[in-house]
Amino acid sequence: MRAAARRDAAGQTEFTLARAVVLFRVAALAEIAVVTGNNASGYSGHGAVVMALLAVIAAESAVLCTACLRARRVRSWWAVADLAFTIAVLAASAMVSVRYGGLYVAYPYSVICSVAFGVGLRRLGAVLAATAVLAAGYLYGGGYLHADPASHVAVNAVTYFPNTVVAWAVSRQMRRLGRELDASRSREAMLARDQERLRHARMLHDRVLQTMETLARGQWITDAALKARVAEEAVWLRGLVEGTGEAAGGDLLGQLSKLAARVARDGLHVELNYATLRGSAILGALDSHRSAALAGAVSEALTNVVKHAATASAVLRLTATPAALIVTVLDQGRGFNPATQPEGMGLKESIRGRITEAGGTVRIDTAPGDGTYLEITMPFANGVHREHGLGGSQSHHGR
Amino acid sequence: MTGVSASLAPESELIQVTIVDDHPVARRGLQSILAEASDIQVSAAVSTPAELSLGGAGAARPDVIMLDLYLDGDEPCLDVIPGLCQGYKVLVVSASGRPADVLGAIRAGACGYVTKLADPLMLVAAVRTVAGGGFALSSQLADILRGELARVPAAAGTAAAAAGGPALSPREEEALDLIARGLTHAQAASRMGVSRATVDTYVERIRAKLHVGNKAELARAAIERRPPGGTR
User: What is the 3-state secondary structure (H, E, C) of chain A?
Assistant: First the structure.
């Protein structure tokens, strides 16, 4: 909130308010200078005392104005200190006026200066209290010491209130607008950054990525290791440009696309489909424990496809109901007979054990020659999670 | 209503495919994948739609045009799709899987959409499906359509559905969900206890609903099709 932040709209607002306080103060000094000058004849040889009072006032004003302009704002405690000084001026000026003659210049001076209290103090209660103290100071100085007529003094005392309250209200409104402007500017900047990122992602996606993916698939690269490497990098690049690489809705997507890259090295092409979750924050509803269990289970499932299914492709799909995330792995490979072929260690421990322990369920649908379908249902941690556009889409789940 | 299926072409007739892609490496890639399928022949591979000599009397008429969605630019070439679809079956192939692109291509009249990431077998299957008059639906595309069509009734309430709006029927939704899991039409059919042809019909209806779903888009497409005395 210091030097660096001063160029923002909130900082500019504070500076504008500080300059307003300085201008009011300059106007107040000019007024008492003119009034005192016009009444020079009334001081009957005691001009030195009057000049000394004016000099003290001018010195305090210079300190305050310099502080305001340097800090580019009005601090609350400065307003409080200035209030105390102004009350002292009200009393001193009354005594000078009574003893040596001349006008009671402190009153018009204090009326103009009171604007600073409305600007410097942030809360209405503080502003009203300060104004009341100021009015009391004037009642003492003008009413008691200077012995002005009670009716005049009462009206004059009330005059402070509109000044301070209006100054407070205007300052508050300006500060709020400044904050709003800053917020909207930062949103704009964020949007612009996103746009730029998307533009780069798009260029990488549409030009570099498709070349890599083509190379990873065709016959141009004869070195198997190099080809696997290209395939792996292509999956990594796809994850980067699609935003799955970094914390986009939890890092489950990132982990899954890493898994896809890993098995691409082994020749298994995984179509990762999370179309219904794109741009949604739904994956954030999963805690890290559940995410880790899912990633572990999917890793094992894909490893099983590589080892046993004798197929080059699989579909990994993520979708959601209002209450749970559904992750499925489907391959069109060899399949097996679950009745005669007991679930291997991988299926039992790494998939079923992991998921059940994290509160999810696993369903396997397979038959020899008919591929394998694995479905994991993982409830969201915090009970029901609602997401527009996903509700109701799972009510007709084929079994 | 049944029978718009993706059966293999008769042995004597090869599926003639024309590739439109500005990316030479991608063209080679698609050609090499399709070359492995004995029932498919790539008759031409060009870099822009303007190079297509479709009207030529001697030119072999392609059964399927595989069109790259991003032809040398930042904007998808959705505007050329309606014109091509007047006389040809268009399968859109792109590196992009952005839902807006996918929906735009299908609404413009494309018979299918596969990403360049697609598995070679899937790509070949999509060509066959489109050549046979079907709608090639991948796992991702199925989910994108599901998201699109599920959103309409949620926003407009049951009034839209009553007015013949594009809400999915429970069976269509089920078919789409099964396809989104990665099942083939035949596998989805056996899960649902219906024939393969019935699933094809569901898919055709879903495609039709997409067009109904956006009247403004339809109007736009109609305007674009109207010029040189177009009969539509």
Answer: CCHHHHHCHHHHHHHHHHHHHHHHHHHHHHHHHHHHHHCHHHHCCCHHHHHHHHHHHHHHHHHHHHHHHHHCCCCHHHHHHHHHHHHHHHHHHHHHHHHHCCCCCHHHHHHHHCHHHHHHCCCHHHHHHHHHHHHHHHHHHHHHHCCCCHHHHHHHHHHHHHHHHHHHHHHHHHHHHHHHHHHHHHHHHHHHHHHHHHHHHHHHHHHHHHHHHHHHHCCCCCCHHHHHHHHHHHHHHHHHHCCCCCCCCCCHHHHHHHHHHHHHHCCCEEEEECHHHCCCCHHHHCCHHHHHHHHHHHHHHHHHHHHHHCCCEEEEEEEECCCEEEEEEEECCCCCCCCCCCCCHHHHHHHHHHHHHCCCEEEEEECCCCCEEEEEEEECCCCCCCCCCCCCCCCCCCC
Cα three-residue angle B73-B75-B76, rounded to 5 degrees? 105
Please judge whether B182 and A211 are an interchain contact, meaning their C-beta atoms are less than 8 angstroms apart: no
- pLDDT (tens digit, 9 = 90+) per residue, A102-113? 788 899 999 999
CA distances A224 to A229, A392, B32, Å, are 8, 46, 18
* Residue of chain A whose Cα is closest to the Cα of B155: A389
The answer, yes or no, to whether ipTM is higher than 0.90 is no
pTM comes to 0.56
Q: What is the pLDDT of residue A12?
A: 93
- Choose from B139, B144, B178, B199 for mutation: most chain A CBs within 10 A: B139
Name residue B136's beta-bridge partners.
B112
Please tell me which of the candidates A202, A275, A390 has its beta carbon nearest to residue B99.
A275
The SS3 call for residue B136 is: strand
Closest CA to B104 of B136, B69, B68: B69
> Which candidate from A242, A276, A373 shows the least CB-CB separation from B181?
A373
CB-CB under 8 Å, B147 with A276: yes
Between CA B35 and CA B23 the distance in angstroms is 18
The yes-or-no verdict on residue A396 having pLDDT over 50 is no
Cβ–Cβ below 8 Å for A211 and B25:
yes
